[in-house]
Design brief:
mainly alpha; transmembrane; 247 residues; Znf_C2H2_type; transmembrane helix; C2H2-type domain-containing protein
């Protein structure tokens, strides 16, 4: 009963807000996918290098039209999302997205921020959103266009003139994102892995260590026991030998 009330309450809230709807010519879903890719497959390497991305780089968080709103999403439970601005609760993320569009449009930096979804071609958003596209026929013109966009991002975000870290990140960006823009089928996106792969490796290593640790202690215990028994046998033999000597 309470669930039904909350759903109807959320629906009424959205209806009341509908008259304030503003149209933004930028896909929030694709922008979110683009940022997730950046966060998973680029930022771990940027942080490892201790590199500061310039505000002129299109990949900088401040250049994401929806970044501030996304940071003000509070995910409390599977079916509970809360607006960080006004604390209203919603039962699905899409309702919260609509709430942002309707009530907090004024908080979008539409003058300076850019649409991160425009970079989806370079960042392989479709590969992440819909893996079935891998079976689709490759378009050479689109692949070339996306590769050019990808290389321009590498040049602007990680200029090789900025030092060793920038050069390494420039090379990584080309391998991680740009090389896959081809119809040869030889290269796949994100070959260097990222945050998810790192977490999985960490978990696998932790589980393996937890399994091996008891075995190590067992072997150590058996070794110590055998050494103790061997020492006792040697002592007995030594004592018998001393008693056998003639007086």
């Amino acid at each position: 009963m309470q669930q039904g009330f909350e759903e109807s309450s959320a629906a009424r809230t959205l209806k009341l807000e509908s008259h304030d709807t503003h149209e933004v010519h930028c896909s929030r879903e694709r922008s979110r996918a683009a940022w997730q890719i950046i966060d998973d497959y680029l930022m771990p390497f940027v942080e490892e290098e201790g590199y500061q991305i310039s505000a002129d780089c299109r990949l900088h968080p401040d250049n994401d039209l929806f970044r501030d709103q996304e940071r003000h999403k509070i995910h409390l439970d599977v079916n509970e999302w809360r607006c960080g601005y006004c604390k209203k609760s919603f039962r699905a993320e899409r309702f919260l997205d609509q709430h942002f569009d309707n009530r907090h449009y004024n908080l979008l930096n539409v003058n300076q921020s850019k649409c991160l979804a425009d970079l989806c071609g370079a960042l392989h958003c479709d590969f992440v959103i819909n893996s079935n596209l891998l079976k689709a026929k490759c378009n050479p013109a689109a692949a070339t266009r996306n590769r050019h966009l990808c290389e321009s991002l590498a040049n602007s975000c990680f200029p090789i003139s900025q030092g060793p870290s920038a050069r390494r990140l420039h090379e990584l960006f080309l391998r991680q994102f740009c090389d896959a823009h081809t119809c040869s089928g030889k290269a796949k996106p994100f070959p260097r892995g990222g945050k998810k792969q790192t977490n999985l490796l960490y978990m696998a290593t932790s589980i393996l260590l937890m399994m091996l640790l008891p075995l190590f202690y067992l072997l150590y215990y058996l070794y110590q026991r055998d050494m103790k028994q061997e020492t006792q046998v040697l002592r007995r033999v030594s004592q018998v030998g001393r008693k056998a000597k003639p007086s």
